Structure formats: C-alpha cells, structure tokens
Amino acid sequence: VRETTALYEIGQDIAEEANLDGILDMVVQHGHALLRTEFAGLALCEPGTDTFRLRAQSGTIDEALVAATLDSEHGLGRRGISAGLPVRVGDYLTEQADSPVLDLVRKSGMRSWMGVPLQGQDQIIGLLYLRSSTPNFFDEEALRFFSALASQATIAIEKASLNEQIRAHAAELEVRVAERTAELDEKSNALEQLSNQLAKYL
Question: Contact, 42 vs 128, CB < 8 A?
Fold first, then answer.
C-alpha cells in the first residue's frame, strides 16, 4: 500500500512538471529518498547515437565511475541497456570479481547496484539507476518499485520531449513565416518603387 501510494503521489508530481530537466531531477530525487540509497542517476540517450549521458543525479558519485557504468562495455548500465532488462547486483566485489573496473569500484565504495532501462516506444531512451555501499541493499521489492518508477519516468520523458519538439517546430515555423513575410514585403516595396518611377513617364 505504501509503495502504491508513493508511486501515485510521484506520478502526480511528475505529471504537473512540463520541463524535461525538472522531470529528470524529480525522478532521481524521489528514487534517492524513497529507497534510502546513496546515489540515484538518470542517463538519457543522445539523439542519433548510442551514447548515454548522465542528465540528472541525486547524491555524489565519482565521474570516472559514471563513465565506467555507462560507456564501458563491461559497465552494468551498458549491460542493462543492451539486454533491455533490469540489472541488480548484490555485491559487486564478489559477483563481478573479474571486472576490469573492479579497482575503480572498490575505491568508490560501491557494493550493490540496481538499474532499469527506460523502454520507449521504439527504443531504449535512458537508464535509471541506484548505487549503495551496503551489500545486498536492493531486494526484489525494491526492484519492483524502481521498475514502476522507471515506467512512470519513461512516459513523462517521452511526453516532455514531444512537447519540446512541438515547441521547437512552432518556433522554427514562426521564424520561416517572418522571413517569408519580410521577403514579400521587400518585393512589394520594390514593385511599388518601380511603379512610381514608371508613373513619372506616363
């Protein structure tokens, strides 16, 4: 019941936010606070590429660890994105002992990690993930809640992105109309001047 209520309230908050960056910040803040973790991050796919960039975060994390999570072929984030499925690691140091970024993870203090890809209409548009220094911090209940939060985030992000595209298209159309109007005004003025000059000889 508590989770359902929390998800409903989060959904209401997100629905009232029209700005994309505002939505991203809201999602990570809720995930961070409700699951009582040390870090929550949300990465989005850069348009026209397969590169994912961290767009919102709550808590602190080493930038090198962010890169290893999202960019490296061995990164947990990249694994979840490639499979299109949630990834949950109970204890990175034991479960991923052969990882080439193990030293980096050990220095960061991270032990458990959970990430859920944001499945858009046609492709994966992002990744929502959490980390903790406590082994086995994320259980099945946390994964279900986080997956539901990721679904809400996906809908809100796609809606906000569509609205941004509409606004950008409208602004571009307005500029084109203004340019065309100015061009026609210039031609009209030129014709008027020509008519005035011809009238002198009639």
Answer: yes
Tokens of 145: 């809640």
Q: What residues contact 2, with CB distance under 8 A and at least 6 apart?
A: none
Q: Is the pLDDT of residue 165 over 60?
A: yes
pTM reported for the whole predicted model? 0.76
Q: Place 1 in a pLDDT band, splitting at 50, 70 and 90.
A: low
The residues, ordered by sequence, that sit 6+ positions from 83 with a Cβ below 8 Å of its Cβ are 117
What is the SS3 string spanning 7-61? HHHHHHHHHCCCCHHHHHHHHHHHHHHHCCCCEEEEEEECCCCCCEEEEEEEECC
Residues 6+ apart with CB under 8 A from 144: 3
CA distance 47 to 199: 58
pLDDT tens by residue, 169-186: 777 778 888 888 888 778
- Other beta carbons within 10 Å of 36: 11
Q: Is the dihedral of CA 40, 161, 44, 142 positive or negative?
A: positive
Residues whose CB falls within 8 Å of the CB of residue 139, separated by 6 or more in sequence, listed in order: none
